[in-house]
Structure formats: structure tokens, C-alpha cells
Design brief:
Blueprint: H1 13-21, E1 26-30, H2 34-42, E2 47-50, H3 54-57, H4 69-80, E3 87-91, H5 101-115, E4 119-123, H6 129-137, E5 142-147, H7 153-156, H8 166-182, E6 186-190, H9 194-203, E7 208-211, E8 219-222, H10 224-227, H11 245-262
Parallel strand pairs: 1-2, 1-8, 2-3, 3-4, 4-5, 5-6, 6-7, 7-8
Helix pairs in contact: 2-4, 4-5, 5-6, 8-9
């Protein structure tokens, strides 16, 4: 069911925390362009993530690493122009905040000023503490990201489940509490054991959004192109596809090609 513009209320970081406190799950999806963001927003999504996954989905790169700050701002600007209800959060891309807290602040401010987005997302825990603090000190809302952190793929060398052993799980819990203390409004947990997701969610007051983190966290996020079945190759265990748009789009385009070549399109009905 669509959400009508005249009846909607803009989602805020404060509302997300209230949703957690009353046990209401938070729905989050990605978007990278105006058309898709319009559909996602109107369908009632709480949070739209302009993810650096645009590097994979939109540009065809193997990892999220190549996408630039300018490109993220372009995608974010397109999304912001489309939305009426959703909170829009933007990934600060790799290389735009790890170097120094000064660089992190500059990148975050550029994203907010130039795109109109409502907050940023940063991967990491204690190792980026200074950068997170500095961005927050400027009044920019920050969402954390722990567990599997795709920007560190070359460090880990694999996309396997994180925090399965006791030591890594304890580090993750410590980082979650640190990010909460610093002032992050929420945290994405990617590809961790479900029982650990439950422990983390129950140990903090800020929303924990899972992607492959089980059903016991406060909300879920997926890449829209994945859950709509537009992408074909990416089929992790945590993904549920709600449509097969790849097949439907391919069929529609094939029909168009056939009708153009046969002369059936355009007919007099489609002519002036």
C-alpha cells in the first residue's frame, strides 16, 4: 500500500529510537537514483541507505572500494529529491574518512550540504573513534556499521560470517557500546550470528539494523536490487527475494525488440 504525500510524516533519528523502545521493527532499503527512491519511499520504507554498494550495483565494480565521494554525493542528491517520508543516510566511501578526523568531517559536511541527506554511515569501531566523534561534534548524525565491513574486504580477504569466535564477538560488543556512547543514532550489523545480534540489540538503547544478523535485532536492511531479483549472481543466505524483476524486465524488453523489428510497434494507436 502506498503512503500518500499529504498524510506522511518525515522519519527522524529520534523516531527510530522511539520505534525501538516500543518494539516496532525498522525497515531499511538502498536506493541510488530518483526513480527507485520514489518507489521505495512511497511504499513506506523508514530509512533509505544510499550505500557505497552503488559501486557494485550501479557501476559494476567487484567491491565497494572504487566509488568516490563525488559519486556518492551525486547518488545521494538524486535520492533526496525523490523522497517525502524516509530518513536518508549516506555511506561515506572508502578513503574519505579513514585518513584523519579532519578528512572525515570534511567529507561528512560535503555530503550533508551538497546532497541534503539526513546523516552518514561509517564502517568500524574503536579504530575510527576520533573520526566519528568529530563528525558528531559538527551536528551530523552518524550510523555505525560493524560485523562484516565491506570497505575492509582486502584486510579480511573473505565475505564470511564475522564474530563467530569469542574474542571477535567481545570486540564487536565493545565497539557497539563505544559507538552508542559517542552518540551514533544506530548501527548496522552485517553477517554475524543471530544470537549475537540479539545480545547486542538488548544491550543498547539505539536501533540495531541487521543484514544477515538474524531476526532479533531492531530492523533489517537489504539492497533493493537484490531483494527485487534484479541482480542474479548475488545470492547470500541472508537474502530473500520478493520478486523476479530480472525475468520480467527481460521478457518486456524482448517483447519490445520483437515488436519493433516486426513493425507492430508503434501502431497507429501510438502515433500522432
Amino acid at each position: 500500500m502506498s503512503v500518500h504525500k499529504e498524510t506522511v510524516k518525515r522519519i527522524t533519528t529520534h523516531q527510530l529510537k522511539e520505534m525501538k523502545s516500543r518494539g516496532e521493527k525498522i525497515a531499511m532499503l538502498t536506493a541510488y537514483d530518483f526513480s527507485m527512491a520514489s518507489i521505495v519511499d512511497a511504499a513506506g520504507i523508514d530509512v533509505i541507505l544510499v550505500g557505497d554498494s552503488a559501486s557494485n550495483v550501479m557501476a559494476g565494480h567487484e567491491t565497494t572500494l572504487p566509488i568516490t565521494l563525488d559519486q556518492m554525493i551525486y547518488h545521494a542528491s538524486s535520492v533526496v529529491r525523490a523522497i517525502n517520508r524516509s530518513l536518508v543516510i549516506v555511506d561515506i566511501p572508502f578513503g574519505s574518512y579513514q585518513g584523519s578526523s579532519r578528512e572525515a568531517l570534511k567529507s561528512a559536511i560535503r555530503i550533508i550540504k551538497e546532497s541534503g541527506a539526513h546523516g552518514v554511515k561509517m564502517e568500524g569501531g574503536k579504530e575510527i573513534e576520533e573520526s566519528v566523534s568529530r563528525v558528531l561534534s559538527a551536528g551530523v548524525p552518524v550510523m555505525g556499521h560493524l560485523g562484516l565491513t565491506p570497505q575492509s574486504i582486502y584486510k579480511f580477504g573473505t565475505y564470511t560470517v564475522r564474530a563467530k569466535d569469542k574474542e571477535e564477538a567481545e570486540t564487536l560488543v565493545s565497539d557497539v557500546r563505544l559507538l552508542e556512547e559517542l552518540g551514533c543514532f544506530g548501527i548496522v550489523l552485517e553477517k554475524i550470528p543471530a544470537n549475537l545480534g540479539k545480545v547486542v540489540s538488548e544491550s543498547v538503547s539505539i536501533p540495531i539494523i541487521g543484514i544477515g544478523a538474524g531476526p532479533f535485532v531492531d530492523g533489517q536492511v537489504l539492497v533493493t536490487h537484490d531483494m527485487l531479483g534484479i541482480t542474479k549472481e548475488f545470492k547470500p543466505r541472508f537474502l530473500k527475494t520478493y520478486a523476479n524483476l530480472n525475468e520480467k524486465m527481460s521478457e518486456a524488453i524482448s517483447n519490445y525488440v520483437n515488436e519493433v523489428k516486426s513493425g507492430d510497434f508503434p501502431s497507429l494507436k501510438e502515433s500522432y
